[in-house]
Amino acid sequence: MDYGKxxxxxxxxxxxxxxxxxxxxxxxxxxxxxxxKVKVLSFLMGLTVTFVIMASYILTWNNKGLSCTLLPxxxxxxxxxxxxxSTDVSFGNNSIDMKLLVKIIASKLDYTPRKVPDERxxxxxxxxxxxxxPRQFLPGIKSPCWxxxxxxxxxxxxxxxxxxxxxxxxxAVCDHLRVNFRQRLHYxxxxxxxxxxxxxxxxxxxxKCGTTDLYHRLLLHPEVKFNTLKEPHWWxxxxxxxxxxxxxxxxxxxxxxxxxxxxxHNIQEVIRGHSSGDQRALQFITGEASASTMWDNRVLHxxxxxxxxxxxxxxxxxxIHTVQPDxxxxxxxxxxxxxxxxxxxxxxxxxxxxxxFHQRVxxxxxxxxxxxxxxxxxxxxxxxxxxxxxxxxxxxxxxxxYLLDWLTVFHKEQILVxxxxxxxxxxxxxxxxxxxxxDLDPLSEQxxxxxxxxxxxxxxxxxxxxxxxxxxxxxNLLREFHQPFNHxxxxxxxxxxxxxxxx
Length: 503
Fold this sequence. Notes:
The protein has 503 residues and is an alpha/beta fold. The chain contains 20 helices and nine strands. Helix 15 (399-406) packs parallel to helix 20 (472-493).
């Protein structure tokens, strides 16, 4: 059959219809009118259905609420035209000019430091927090402790503590603390008081940088009386409850303070037994190691919903500094390239591969680039919608952006920044540096040997080790991306080791 010559009859083919010459034009107009009505009706029906779907979606969203407050920044994949001289990274139909992106990052890293909110504004955000914690702590005690009036009618301390519900170890501690609890209370002028303490120091980050290992080794120092939870996450997550996770209850300040009662009870025993004061025993300190404290401020933008700000008006350090201006801050960092891969291996569930990691890295770089082309660097670092849309916890390696904000409220001498690489290569020397920073007594050789020989905590799983290193292309991309951040970090800390140039 010759398909090229076969006539094809269409729906509007009126050949061989044998219509009368007068009737044909009228029939044609009638046909067009009927077709137009069908199209108009179809168009109106489509609009109606679209409207109903959008309205139901919006109503459902409003009823459920948001898991956290998203900042008003939209992200879309972008195509940056590349030159032959620059490093090209392709992903689907998009490409990234890495040299151009690095220049943009470097230029936007030179920004004016954040405006620290007035203390009055901070106090107004959480009146209960600042009514429980006084502005002055007990003299002669190294830990920040104070006496808080206690309701003597409360017969079951710790029973409703929300941390207790999720930690068997802390439940055991609570059971221990409940024994002779009333004997440890302080009575004065017909009132009953309870000794309360805050952490003396905070290990604030970053995740997958050795915070767990450092925490457990510090536990072995006789002057350190930790809480039993490494990561309470109170300052950044737990105190906000459903604002971050809809199904999560808000953890009261009192539950957080309970975590440090083991140290408080030890200090109280010294105060009661040695009225003249035993300075050595009163050097007990406590601390916590929530690795989210340095970076996770996703919820804090909601504290001022009336302000249309792309950057969070408050950060976790504003609250910690207000209640505890003399706090000691410890930060442990590692090569951000290796940190991201370790984070992927630890938190990613399901099928993991070096190819999958590479794809996620490129997508994350694209999303960050899209944000950075239209916003400040701090907006992109802290934006919740960007953080949640990325397939990796990509922003956590931009260390200097977070550090600069911590330096707006704490003095440089109050913050100790160490590298995981130095910690692993010279554990003895690094631990002594931490002890000196916390004003802890030096340990004997035997005690130090116990700390050094302790097994490494939270090391990489066997199945992740067999996956091998990341692809060379991924490593090169990440190293180039982090270069301006590392240069700025090394400059701020006046230490070229933070360039990670020999990694």
